[in-house]
Amino acid sequence: MKALVFHTFGGPEVLALQEIPEPVLQAGTVKVRTRAIGLNYADIYRRRGNYHLVGEPPYILGYEGAGVVEEVAPDVEGIQAGDRVGFADVPHANAELVLVPADRVIKLPEGIRYEDAAAVLLQGLTAQYLVNDSYAVKQGDEVLVHAAAGGVGQLLLQLCKARGAKVVGLTSSPEKRDAALAAGADEVFLYNTDWVSGVLNWSAGAGMDVAYDSVGSTLMDSFNAVRIKGTVVFFGMAGGDPAPIDPRMLMDTSKTLTGGDLWNHITSAEERSKRGNALFSDMLEGRLRLSEPRTFSLADGAEAHRYLESRASTGKILLIP
Length: 321
Hints:
By secondary structure, the protein is an alpha/beta fold. Helix content is 30%, strand content 26%. 43% of the residues are buried.
């Protein structure tokens, strides 16, 4: 089979499409022929060597994709060859064939394309737990969403709007501001402005009920933008590590800091299936709209990495085998 591999850490130029042996079916797994593969910033970190990788080169990136089941281990029940499936946390996805543990398979309903599943699963399941578990968004809430034009950001603001909330977004450029407004934001401020004052003025001085912060370095600004007894949800560090938080500030303001990680919420096959089906229902019933993803062939994976690193993208990037 063909796979996008690299032998040394470095820039996009280390990636190359090569012929390698097919994965061998193991107990409790299925073999999936990929039709679409999601590209995420974690792939950039792994390629650079920022994340630890197990095993020896050639390394294969990718953790998210969708395709057709080709082969099923004898001990696996409820899945058969020909099933349309997606997955969000399976290594070595940048290949024509991927070995997927059966408990990580999410079956795709009619109406959900392979491209839809590969574009939404990781980021959509993240947005879903953020609005349900980290902070339960409700009618009338005022919500601040960082990186509102990004993959998670656009989905997050849509799910908040579907629950009757008012949403303010933050973006790094006018073009991304337009994308966030098109996705449903009520107002969007740019990072290179005094956005804390802008947010406070927008909320009539009271501050927001909750801020979803995936930037990290902006964490104290997020606290300044939420109301007394407000909540900041910290779930990423795209802009660098946050400054330490003084617990005295939390006590004095009755504000809440909570963290978020998807894998603490998806801990079983049943939970994965339930949350996946809820996400697909949101899509099929129109509560969640995906912007058309930017696609690259798997052979052009290096170019896809360059495009993602340029931060020019406003939606999902997919690799097509």
